[in-house]
Write a structure and sequence with these properties.
Helices cover about 40% and strands about 15% of the residues. It has helices at about 5-15, 20-25, 70-80, 95-100, 120-125, 140-150, 170-180, 195, 230-245, 250-260, 265-280, 300-305, 325-335, 365-370, 385-405; strands at about 50-55, 55, 85-90, 110-115, 135-140, 155-160, 185-190, 205-210, 225-230, 285-290, 315-320, 340, 350, 375-380. The chain is globular, with a radius of gyration of 22 Å.
Length: about 400
């Protein structure tokens, strides 16, 4: 639900904004309280709202599952940052995915990039099929798109960059073909955040985020969001948001909105740190390959230059370490600043081994076909000093290789 509260909200409703990113991040969806003058909106915890007569609520709210002031504020802010008319918040990124897939009719066909987040792959292959939606995966969606489209194809799902191999997709190239057939294009923008990339500007119909990651940015909220421009989509997804009820709490919306206000600062710092770490890893003889869109060696660097703000690579990267799965696991135990943990996009730096953690549920043959080998390590660079992060990564790499050569792992 989007409520016109101020000029920032009005601009989000119209899909335009005369303000730049940082100004929108700080002010969109943050009207001053008309009674107290409070600069930061209060947390509205009430689940129900009084009515002056039957069917006549005091204000615009009736029941918090349907709409809540904090959720509206957050949705308004996300819409502004993604250059969208509408945004809808959900209880998690996975709930966002599920709601969008639930909007498809039985018998619908979906085309997806092959190296998606493990939870998305799980939903596509284990849940969507139960309600009659079939998914085809492609490792080269820009080349395969026309040959994969069927009469029942209703949606194309893109992650760009993909998780965890950081492959890029030319969103405009896919969207132009999809729209010839009346097919919707969804882009999961979690890995970059709205600061680095705005998929709707490149032809996508819906952009989704795990708010848990960069938008909130502090590893203390579980939440998701979808942003889009189409009125019919808004009606359909708003109905499902309310009917299914997978909505975030007011407190989580308030926290995520607070985190969003510094997104531009955090995303820029994380991207700069990842660039430094990627360059250091690329120069190491102990590393087989580095996946990072900010490197000129990345095979789709041209896409990053076209789609990303100033060609930034974002805060995520992955690399293959010599020594196999055992070396990858040992590396994650030897870092001192990077914490071994799942998730990403927080102020703190994290490391993990996708084949054994976030993507363990994907069969090995499928994983490796998508480039997710047992020796692949994924890094989420936080906002610490880049010199410290580089030193931490390189000491862990070098110690791991020394132990491997000594036969101690």
């Amino acid at each position: 639900m989007t409520i016109i509260q101020d000029e920032f909200t009005q601009q989000a409703e119209e899909g335009v904004s005369t303000r730049r990113f940082a100004t929108n991040a700080v002010h969109a969806g943050s009207p001053h309280d008309p009674t107290t003058g409070a600069v930061i909106p209060a947390i509205s915890l009430s689940t129900t709202f009084a009515q002056t007569a039957v069917g006549a609520p005091v204000g615009i709210y009736e029941y918090s599952r349907s709409a809540n002031p904090n959720r509206d504020n957050f949705e308004t802010a996300v819409a502004a940052l993604e250059c969208a008319r509408y945004a809808l918040a959900f209880s998690s990124g996975s709930a966002t995915t599920a709601t969008i897939l639930q909007s498809l009719a039985v018998g619908s066909h979906v085309i997806s990039v092959s190296d998606v987040y493990g939870g998305t792959h799980r939903y596509f292959t284990k849940v969507a099929t139960a309600h009659g939606v079939r998914v085809t995966f492609s490792g080269s969606i820009e080349l395969d798109i026309r040959s994969l489209i069927e009469p029942s194809t209703k949606l194309i799902w893109i992650e760009s960059p993909s998780n965890p191999t950081l492959s890029l997709v030319d969103i405009r190239a896919v969207a132009d073909v999809a729209h010839e057939y009346g097919i919707l294009v969804v882009v999961d923008n979690t890995f970059l955040s709205p600061y680095v990339q705005n998929p709707l500007k490149h032809g996508a119909d819906i952009v989704v985020h795990s708010v848990t990651k960069y938008i909130n940015g502090h590893s203390d909220v579980l939440m998701g969001v979808a942003a889009f421009n189409d009125d019919e989509l808004n009606d359909r997804l708003t109905f499902l948001q309310n009917a299914i009820g997978a909505v975030p709490s007011p407190f989580d919306c308030w926290l995520a909105h607070r985190g969003l206000k510094t997104l531009h600062l955090r995303a820029k710092a994380a991207s700069e740190n990842a660039q430094a770490v990627a360059e250091a890893l690329e120069g190491s003889e102990n590393v087989i390959a580095v996946n990072y869109p900010g490197l000129n060696s990345h095979r789709q660097r041209y896409v990053a230059l076209k789609q990303h703000r100033k060609g930034m690579g974002g805060g995520m990267l992955s690399f293959r370490i010599k020594g196999g799965a055992k070396a990858a696991a040992k590396f994650c135990q030897l870092t001192k600043i990077f914490t071994l943990a799942e998730s990403l996009g927080g102020v703190e730096s994290l490391c993990e081994v996708p084949s054994s953690m976030t993507h363990a549920g994907i069969p090995q043959i499928e994983r490796e076909a998508a480039g997710v080998y047992d020796d692949l390590v994924r890094l989420s660079c936080g906002i610490e000093d880049s010199e410290d992060l580089v030193e931490d990564v390189m000491q862990a790499v070098n110690k791991t290789i020394a132990l491997a050569e000594a036969g101690k792992i």
